Amino acid sequence: MTSTSFAAPPRAVAAAAPRRRRNPRRYDALLGVIGVLGVLALSETLSRTGIVNPAFLPPVTEMYSTLFSLLGEHSFWVSLGETLRGWAVGLAVAMIIGIVAGVIIGSLPWLKAATHSTIEFLRPIPSVALIPLVVLLYGTKPQSALILVVYASVWQILVQVLYGVADVDPVARDTARSFHFGRLRIFRSVLWPTSLPYILTGFRLAAAVALILEITAELVIGVPGLGRDIGIAQSSGAVAETYALVIVVGLVGVAVNLLSRFAERRLLWWHPSVRSES
Amino acid sequence: MSLTRIGRRAVLTFGLPIVLLAIWWVASAGSTNPFWPSLQTILQAFPQTWTWDKVVQDVVPSLSRLGIGFALAVLLGIIGGTAIGLSPRLRALSEPVLEFFRAVPPPVLVPIIALFAGYTGSLGKIVTITLGCLWPILLNTVEGVRGLDPTLTDTARSYRLSAWRRFAFVILPGASPRIFTGARQALSIGVILMVISELFGANRGLGAAIVQFQRSFAIPQMWTGIILLGLIGVTLSAIFKAVENRTLAWYVGQRQMERGE
């Protein structure tokens, strides 16, 4: 595959552009595809012509053929599964802790005032500071990654839940109270719908952070997963495989982003911010 | 503010942290578990471990790499983000590519950059930090520029402000709330990358020092490193907040007025 075969389509499309402007969304999607192909073609050219040493940046076609041969290997799927499991378990634990703690702290003003300084202090502590400690405690077991993932993501959710609970309309809350709603009923019909958008924002932020820390733990500590495979491939000089695995991790990241956006749309279909978009 | 209110605030601010530290102190006192030394031991080890020489040798290089990398990312992110945000065509062209690069967890940059430059010098580490911090700033700048009030930009244009003045007085301030949002995300990614970029190869630096303590089972020293790293994280975030509050004072005020507070 040469670079000219990639470069040809943009001109043809540019000529056809005015006619398609009636459907801007499709036109934008087309431009996006061209952008992706352009970057692939550029990096292929840089590598093939030797402008960038192919020992550092193999041709894209080689990365993808390595990627496809990886897809046939059992060990690849095991690693992918381990990464996804570590991410999902850590995120789920962080969600539960964050939501429960957030609702309790947020509903009791004195508790919120008393914990504010502590939360603001603990939140910016970088999760990676805990790496030496978890290495001592758990070595390369998945628990090491779990602790890092949970510590990093729980604050994202907790803080959003606190915002959400604070956003509850006082009139709605007082109305529910004067109708003698029970605590559970107030939670379900007043607190939950108000804070759900915030919780989902927290979920979106936490999902991305959790993936970063899961991969970090694998790469740095050697917890089994795609991150560890990248480290091994790199140190053993399997350059194309290193890139292929990085591409896979990037695609996992894209999938995580799409998933959290999808969840927001799905669970907030009734919310004005989602309804106004469609 | 009356004295009782000041007292009340002090209790609320410092009460829980003091209680937690006291619990840690008491619970760990006389600890024989090698992994959990007593808080007293850790605090005694702190001044011995982080002497002036050690700080100059390990902490200063780490922080300056973070500073340079972060500053470069802010600069490139704002320039690139403004260009992409102003041109709908460029935005459509680059959006999927940028979405992919943003989704790549930044730590995997380390092995890739190690392929190019090895990983012993400062250059590779600075490049890692810059690339990791770039995407949140870039994408938020794009959104900020897109969300500019069209009345403002049209007015600027009809007054024939030069491109540079439009950028400095209309676009940049208008997009700054979003730029700060991106920069805040980037800062925490930058700290992560500062630490883990030092864990590869033979290195000096804060992250390298802490792992060195752990490997040689100097556990109280390791704990002092964890605490120091925590303090650095807290300090950086406080500095960031102070800069943000100063720069965005007009924005916070405007929002309060809109909400009728």
UniProtKB/TrEMBL annotation, chain A:
Pfam families: BPD_transp_1
Chief location: membrane
The protein's name in its UniProt record: ABC transporter permease subunit
Domain ABC transmembrane type-1: 80-260
Keyword annotations: Cell membrane, Membrane, Transmembrane, Transmembrane helix, Transport
Lineage of source species: Bacteria, Bacillati, Actinomycetota, Actinomycetes, Micrococcales
PANTHER family from the UniProt entry: ABC TRANSPORTER PERMEASE PROTEIN MJ0413-RELATED, ALKANE SULFONATE ABC TRANSPORTER-RELATED, MEMBRANE SUBUNIT
Lineage: superkingdom: Bacteria
CDD domains tied to this protein: TM_PBP2
Keyword Transport annotated: yes
Any one GO BP annotation for this protein: transmembrane transport
Family (UniProt): Belongs to the binding-protein-dependent transport system permease family.
Entry-linked SUPFAM superfamilies: MetI-like
Topology relative to the membrane: Multi-pass membrane protein
Membrane-spanning residues: 27-43, 87-109, 121-138, 145-166, 198-221, 242-263
GO cellular component: plasma membrane
Localisation: Cell membrane
UniProtKB/TrEMBL annotation, chain B:
Alphabetized InterPro entries for the sequence: MetI-like (IPR000515), MetI-like_sf (IPR035906)
Keyword Endoplasmic reticulum applies: no
Protein location: Cell membrane
Biological processes, Gene Ontology terms: cellular response to sulfur starvation; transmembrane transport
Membrane-crossing residue ranges in chain numbering: 66-88, 100-120, 126-142, 186-211, 223-243
GO cellular component: plasma membrane
Major place of residence: membrane
Chain ranges of the ABC transmembrane type-1 domain: 59-244
Entries under PROSITE patterns matching the protein: ABC_TM1
Topological type in the membrane: Multi-pass membrane protein
Assigned keywords, A-Z: Cell membrane, Membrane, Transmembrane, Transmembrane helix, Transport
Pfam families: BPD_transp_1
Family stated for the protein in its record: Belongs to the binding-protein-dependent transport system permease family.
Protein name, UniProt field: ABC transporter permease
Naturally occurring in which organism (per UniProt): Demequina capsici
Lineage summary: Bacteria, Bacillati, Actinomycetota, Actinomycetes, Micrococcales
